[in-house]
Amino acid sequence: MNLLDNPVPWPDGATCAASFTFDLDAESVLQVERKTDAHERLFALSMMRYGPQVAVPRLLRIFREYDMRSTFFVPGWVAERYPQAVEAIVAGGHEIGHHGYLHESPNGCTADDERYWFERAHDALKRISGQSVIGYRAPSFDISLATPALLNEAGFTYDSSLMGDDVPYLLRDRSGTLLELPTSIILDDWPQYAHVWDLGTTNQISTPRRAQELFLSEFDAVAREGGLWIGVWHPWISGRPARARAMIDMIEHMQATAKVWFAPLAEIAAHVQKVMAAGHWTPRTDDLPYHPGPLPEWDKASWRRV
C-alpha cells in the first residue's frame, strides 16, 4: 500500500529526495532572546559559537567524504560575524539560504520591521556568500502572513518553513505563488538535543542512537514512494562528535536502502519547477491565509441552539 498520494518524479529514477539542511544560528538565538545580557552568558555563547567555529568544518568534511551538497540557512548577522564559515560552506558547493537577520521571529515583528530585517539580511547574505539567495526558512519556522509577499517581491524560488505535506506544494496569496519544500518538527534536532537553560530550553537529551532511530523512521516511510526528506539541524547541536558520527551512519543507511537523490534545496526546487513546467507533475496549492481572522466561534453570540 502506498502512503503518498502525489509522488514527485525525481531525477535519474531516484525514489526519493533528501537534504541534510542546517540552520547556522550560532549565538543569534541568544542575542534575540536576551538582548540586554547575552554578552554575559559565556556558557551559552560558547555552546553556540561551537557551531561556526568547530562544527561547520567537521560537517563539511563529512559532506566532502560522501560527495554530498546541502543548504545552510544563515541569519545575516551570523554571516557578518563569521564570514569565514560562510565562505567555507560556499567553497564546498553548498547553498546559502535566508534565515532572518538576528533570528527574529516574523510574527513578532511589525510589517515594517519584518521588511527591514529581511532586506538587511538578504543584502548581507548576497554580499558575503556571492550567491543569489533564493531560499528562505523563517527563524523558529515562524513565517508570517506578510512573508510570502516579501519572498515573491525579492524573487525567491522557495520557502522551507512549513510542514503541510510530505511532498512539495504551492503557497498562494495576493502576491502570487511560492514553492514550499516542507519538513517536519520530527526531523528537527532541537527537540532531541537542545538543553540551554539560558534560553529556557531544558529538553531531556536523547542519545544519538535514539534520535537517529526517529529521523530514519521518517526516511524509511517515504524513501520508496517519491517523498521528500528534509532534516532541520543546527551545527552547534548536531555537529558534536557522537551526533556527527550518527549522521554518517544515517547517510550510509540511506544510501544502502533506497535510490536517494541528495541535493541542496535550490536544486530540488529547480527540479520540481521543471517537472511542473513539463506537465509531468502537479502539486496541490494552499491558499493563504488559512483563516481570515480569529475564529467567529469565539463569539458566543454566533451560536443559537437548534
Brief write-up:
This protein is α/β, with parallel strands linked by helices. It has helices at residues 28-33, 42-65, 76-81, 83-91, 111-129, 147-153, 190-193, 208-222, 235-238, 241-257, 265-277; strands at 16-23, 71-74, 95-98, 135-136, 158-159, 169-173, 176-180, 195-196, 201-202, 228-233, 260-262, 285-287.
Q: Keyphrases for this structure?
A:
single chain, 306 residues, alpha/beta, 5-stranded parallel sheet, 5-stranded mixed sheet, 11 helices, 12 strands, 41% helix
Reconstruct the topology from this structure.
Layout: E1 16-23, H1 28-33, H2 42-65, E2 71-74, H3 76-81, H4 83-91, E3 95-98, H5 111-129, E4 135-136, H6 147-153, E5 158-159, E6 169-173, E7 176-180, H7 190-193, E8 195-196, E9 201-202, H8 208-222, E10 228-233, H9 235-238, H10 241-257, E11 260-262, H11 265-277, E12 285-287
Parallel strand pairs: 1-2, 1-10, 1-11, 2-3, 4-5, 5-7, 6-12
Antiparallel strand pairs: 6-7, 8-9
Helix pairs in contact: 8-10
